[in-house]
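note to self: the first set is below, dont mix up w the second
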Amino acid sequence: MTVAAPPALAPSRDPFSVGAGPDRPPRDATTTLWLEAGSERLPVLRDGEPAVVRCDELPCGDRPATDHLLIATLPADAEPAIVATVDGVDQRLDLRTGEVTSSVSRVAYDRPSVVPATVPAWPPRTLAVRTQAQLEAEFGTGAGDLTRGGLDVGYGGRIAEIYLAPFDRFEGWAPPGHAWLVIRVEGHLRQPANTSWRARLDAAASWTVTHDAGVATPAYPPTPDDVLAFLVPDDVVSVTLAYRPTGTVVLPPDAAHHEFRAPEPLTVEVPLP
């Protein structure tokens, strides 16, 4: 039996930008292995301890593959199976037939999880939020840096990484027949040149994925804000990612704010092998 880390299912974590999520911690993706025969289930032991592949959160990181000889005494009519339990869900490998049964997404068995990010970039654009005259009318002509140069945000960017995964860092398992489309983008939002203000993007209103079966929006507020997760059918062969920046520019700590919305969405087709 070979024990190894799963394929990459998510972008690498940035310790300076990855938080604990919008309202919950990351899901534990640790795998526990069992030997099942009929109604009996025994832990697979390694050096006398249960065989557990630690992964506190995605991505699991590199782990060299190791081979193990599994020895067990079973009744002649037993139907042995290896069971892998992750986040409370079992996946069962029949040792006679090689068939895998699972009550959750099977996309990792059928398709590559890492998708080449070879799609065109979006050129940079600028969206005017407030002119200097408008800000001076609001704050007065003596407000200095609060009004100087007006207020705008930049947008554009490119797709840097794409994954088609059965398990998401915050949502856990995708349901059967579905997968998590995880996309990391770069350069999608440029903060105002006027550093007194901060732009806050409304991800649910800004990003959509369109496919043959419908439209998906981000499953949760992105954490960090450049990693997006969409629930899609596991057999989808291409999607269209649309980005129409929508949000607010605020004067911390929320002393004033102005809404913005790009006039048209930026789109790109993403093929999924």
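second set (the one i keep forgetting abt)
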Amino acid sequence: SVRIPSSLCGIVGLKTTYGRTDMT
């Protein structure tokens, strides 16, 4: 039950970082 949220947070964080870097 901890792997699901962890993976989700990681994916979201990675996507956000990628999007921000791409936008900048």
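remember for set 2: Residues 3-23 form the longest helix (21 residues).
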